[in-house]
Amino acid sequence: MMKHSVFWQLALYGGLTLLQKGMGFILLPITTRYLSLAEYGTLELLVLTLTLASLFEISSGALPKMAAEQQSNGHKLLSSAVKLSASYGVLVAAVCWLLVISNPFDLYRLISWQQAALLALSVWLMMVLYPLQVWLRIKNKPEHYCLLVGSQTLVQSSVTLYGLSAGWGINAILIAGVVANLAAACLALALLHRDWQVAVDSKLVKDIVSYQSRLIGASLALFVLYGLDRMMISHWLGPQVLAQYGIMLKLTEVIAVCFAVFEMWWGPKRFQLAGTTAGRDSLVAVHQLVLVLLMAGLLLVSAIAAPVLRWLLPPDYLGGMTWLPAMLVVLGSRLSTSILDFGCYTQAKPVWLTRINGGYAIVAIPALLWAIPQWGVPGLLVVSAILYGSRLVVFGYLSQRLLPLDYQFNRLIALAVTSAAILLLQPLIFPLFTGLLVITWLLTAAAVLLRHRAALSFDTLTNLR
């Protein structure tokens, strides 16, 4: 049916993801009106802590692969995942609360124990919600997913706006997160009540933990590259600098959110395609198209950033504008890796994810400890560009060894180098013509890259279930 076409699913999931993930950016003019620069920096630290806790999620990352392998055992798989996440989530939430109230390195000095409790409750609710959201996408239930995400976003934004206008400050955002996650978890459990109300399968639990534990290790190592840096900024440079850096991250995350649209729809399906030659050809075609769109998106954000932010935000929040081009280059390397490392996920035990990310984390810690106190944010960006760029090369090479795919690497590399050069030089050379340049670059890159690539089969993608 047409409503289950690939285009309809992409549009639906895309709109929902942009609405949910982009809400923080949409609310920026209001948030910055009610919160001082120091308060906003403290909020960034809380959100970062929430992100760190979410990396310990124990089941949702394993579900797409295991669902493809356990076609006849779906109810037990979801039931095992949800109950495992709910039990394990209590432990993660407790550790999160203890972390904040113990205040290591004087990071959380402005946060009360009540705020820490709200944060911990949000963590537990997220743990319960994650496998349910993933299952709705795996089972192609876009109407239910739309209802779930739409309700969650509406509740969170409404409570946030009311709380800020009532003078609750940071508490408004924390309370909104708890209420929205609670409402979404209850709704998801109701929508999937037939799927999760069965006995837990201990063997499935062991398989989930075995697979997901390696993803947790890889994610924690990646957090050193994309989270610990902000904690160091807060510690050494203060919450005001963290706030300015966080604003620039919000802008770059516009690209990451659009990329998440693709991953949300594509993640469960790529495992189904990897088993056949025609499927792998479609994988290559989709990945190359997304890489080209990613490059164009980075250029577009660079072009519109200055006028948009000056229109939206108070002057105090604009101190990080000079960091944006380098931040976009780093983001491009990070998101490209998420495409080109697919072969590393096809193994029964994806050990290379943890090994490589762990190795880079070990290198990153002393590098950041040296760069941030001495050189500030510019030093951080140089280190990040080197680490993420080399990590992209390593993952791309290893993924090709594990699952060879026929990418047009010479053209991709040429496009990537040119895009990075334009990003870094754009503020100095052609600030007035970047918009036209973005459009020209998109059309030229797409034509050059895809001219000889006709393997993309939309019939194949549409028929995936």
TrEMBL record:
- In its UniProt entry, the species of origin is given as Neiella marina
Q: What is this protein called?
A: Membrane protein involved in the export of O-antigen and teichoic acid
Q: Which UniProt keywords apply?
A: Cell membrane, Membrane, Transmembrane, Transmembrane helix
What InterPro entries does UniProt report for this protein, alphabetically?
Poly_Biosynth_Transport (IPR050833), Polysacc_synth (IPR002797)
Q: Cite the source lineage.
A: Bacteria, Pseudomonadati, Pseudomonadota, Gammaproteobacteria, Alteromonadales
Q: Where in the cell is it found?
A: Cell membrane
Q: Where does it primarily localize?
A: membrane
Name the PANTHER family on file: O-ANTIGEN TRANSPORTER-RELATED (PTHR30250:SF11), PST FAMILY PREDICTED COLANIC ACID TRANSPORTER (PTHR30250)
Q: Which residues cross the membrane?
A: 40-63, 84-105, 111-132, 144-164, 170-192, 213-233, 245-266, 286-309, 321-340, 352-372, 378-397, 409-426, 432-450
Q: Its topology with respect to the membrane?
A: Multi-pass membrane protein
Any one annotated GO CC term: plasma membrane
